[in-house]
């Protein structure tokens, strides 16, 4: 009751408790994801795994057994490449010619929580369990949240697996390094010869 009154008096979490009464919270874990400095796709894939309950030995595709997911610092999410300016979200209003679009950087400025929500929801299977899993996802732009009275468990992101370089790419890298070394050696020889001529002339 105290939590509900606190949220009603504050405008920071208008949707924090929306739909919680429709979720059976008994036996669920509260997993906390810190999005600060994380890559959008890697973070969304881990959240999708937890929402589906795939990290549990009792996983079944037809049973909703996922845990509650709380995502913090959504405004500090990172993307690779030029996605911040090149990635575009499209939607249609239903009227003729009303195809709308919005770039990722504009969506981050408007509502960064929707960026993570869209990425996670598009990784979930489109079935009857999707709405229930969406209710278990709570995203906040800042590092504050109203669920401090719950048994929270910080989620540790798995280490990123770096794929070994293929032989063809390795040979190309070696050739490039050798070319740079030869260029530096020729440059050093040219400077030495130039300095020698200057000393002789003096």
TrEMBL record:
<feature type="compositionally biased region" description="Basic and acidic residues">
    <location>
        <begin position="177"/>
        <end position="194"/>
    </location>
</feature>
<comment type="similarity">
    <text>Belongs to the universal ribosomal protein uL13 family.</text>
</comment>
<feature type="region of interest" description="Disordered">
    <location>
        <begin position="173"/>
        <end position="202"/>
    </location>
</feature>
<dbReference type="InterPro" id="IPR005823">
    <property type="entry name" value="Ribosomal_uL13_bac-type"/>
</dbReference>
<keyword id="KW-0689">Ribosomal protein</keyword>
<dbReference type="InterPro" id="IPR036899">
    <property type="entry name" value="Ribosomal_uL13_sf"/>
</dbReference>
<dbReference type="InterPro" id="IPR005822">
    <property type="entry name" value="Ribosomal_uL13"/>
</dbReference>
<dbReference type="GO" id="GO:0003735">
    <property type="term" value="F:structural constituent of ribosome"/>
</dbReference>
<dbReference type="Pfam" id="PF00572">
    <property type="entry name" value="Ribosomal_L13"/>
</dbReference>
<keyword id="KW-0687">Ribonucleoprotein</keyword>
<dbReference type="GO" id="GO:0003729">
    <property type="term" value="F:mRNA binding"/>
</dbReference>
<dbReference type="GO" id="GO:0005762">
    <property type="term" value="C:mitochondrial large ribosomal subunit"/>
</dbReference>
<protein>
    <recommendedName>
        <fullName>50S ribosomal protein L13</fullName>
    </recommendedName>
</protein>
<dbReference type="GO" id="GO:0006412">
    <property type="term" value="P:translation"/>
</dbReference>
<dbReference type="GO" id="GO:0017148">
    <property type="term" value="P:negative regulation of translation"/>
</dbReference>
């Amino acid at each position: 009751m105290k939590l509900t009154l606190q949220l009603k008096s504050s405008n920071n979490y208008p949707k924090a408790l929306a739909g919680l009464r429709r979720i059976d919270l008994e036996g669920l874990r509260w997993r906390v994801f810190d999005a600060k400095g994380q890559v959008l796709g890697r973070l969304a894939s881990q959240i999708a795994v937890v929402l589906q309950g795939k990290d549990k030995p009792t996983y079944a595709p037809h049973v909703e057994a996922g845990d509650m997911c709380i995502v913090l610092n959504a405004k500090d999410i990172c993307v690779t490449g030029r996605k911040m300016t090149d990635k575009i979200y499209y939607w249609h209003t239903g009227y003729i010619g009303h195809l709308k679009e919005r770039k990722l950087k504009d969506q981050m400025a408007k509502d960064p929580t929707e960026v993570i929500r869209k990425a996670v929801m598009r990784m979930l299977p489109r079935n009857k369990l999707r709405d229930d899993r969406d209710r278990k996802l709570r995203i906040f732009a800042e590092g504050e949240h109203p669920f401090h009275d719950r048994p929270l468990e910080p989620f540790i992101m798995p280490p990123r697996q770096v794929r070994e370089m293929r032989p063809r790419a390795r040979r190309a890298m070696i050739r490039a390094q050798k070319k740079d070394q030869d260029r530096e050696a020729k440059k050093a020889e040219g400077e030495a010869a130039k300095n020698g001529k200057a000393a002789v002339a003096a």
